[in-house]
Amino acid sequence: xxxxxxxxxxxxxxxxxxxxxxxxxxxxxxxxxxxxxxxxxxxxxxxxxxxxxxxxxxxxxxxxxxxxxxxxxxxxxxxxxxxxxxxxxxxxxxxxxxxxxxxxxxxxxxxxxxxxxxxxxxxxxxxxxxxxxxxxxxxxxxxxxxxxxxxxxxxxxxxxxxxxxxxxxxxxxxxxxxxxxxxxxxxxxxxxxxxxxxxxxxxxxxxxxxxxxxxxxxxxxxxxxxxxxxxxxxxxxxxxxxxxxxxxxxxxxxxxxxxxxxxxxxxxxxxxxxxxxxxxxxxxxxxxxxxxxxxxxxxxxxxxxxxxxxxxxxxxxxxxxxxxxxxxxxxxxxxxxxxxxxxxxxxx
Length: 348
Prior knowledge:
two-stranded antiparallel sheet, mainly alpha, globular
């Protein structure tokens, strides 16, 4: 009790706490001692910075990114998605650009399947073109890429030369040149005449006209060739060395090493080139003069769509044709992806 009274008793001014008060359980720090000399009992905490007081809004966090994306977003919604949805609606109408669209339901699609013979002809020509041009182009591109992969001097020059047709092949000038090369009095027949061979009129003969366009497509092998060459550079050289030591022939190395390791690149090129083949338009339009002749032998699907839209102004029917093409490409692409489990080999 005496100790308690000694602790609570007032002290003279200037005397500091010692003894039991200093060594007791309630010993105070310098800040606590300051409170005993008149400091407020509870100091006000410093408020956090304004930026940490509340979470920032969505626009404050992402606004700059969306501003940079704005040109692409505007182009996508206004120039791609909007017109696509508009054409989907027009595919169910009778529309000729002069009168308001008249909704007719699925009549355009029914007519396409049951009445339109040119639709069947265009589909047949396009499928033949895709089936022939895509494998031939990929095989030719892979062969050239393997030749260039052996470390030729001036590799960059060769790559540029072989890639050039891919840049120019879809142009109108090349299509006009191709028509002149395969004309009755063109350069191809002039070369054949030197060997005593009388060549036909390749362009005006329905038995050969489509194949001239296939050759033009194969000639544009530069783009897949560059991709194949990049893929071949990723194949480990020690695998070929080990296979050679085991006595594997060049063909067996190609079949057992190159193709499996290159299968993802082959798949990528196959999908891209298939889509491009379905969309081919300029060569058929220029070579046939926009008619798809002779006897619809070069009537590509896109050329027929163009004739319906801008030749006869049947915009509703042309829109239906366009959406059927979208569905066909989607089916081919989906089947390609489903088939990858059987022949495409990834690292895992």
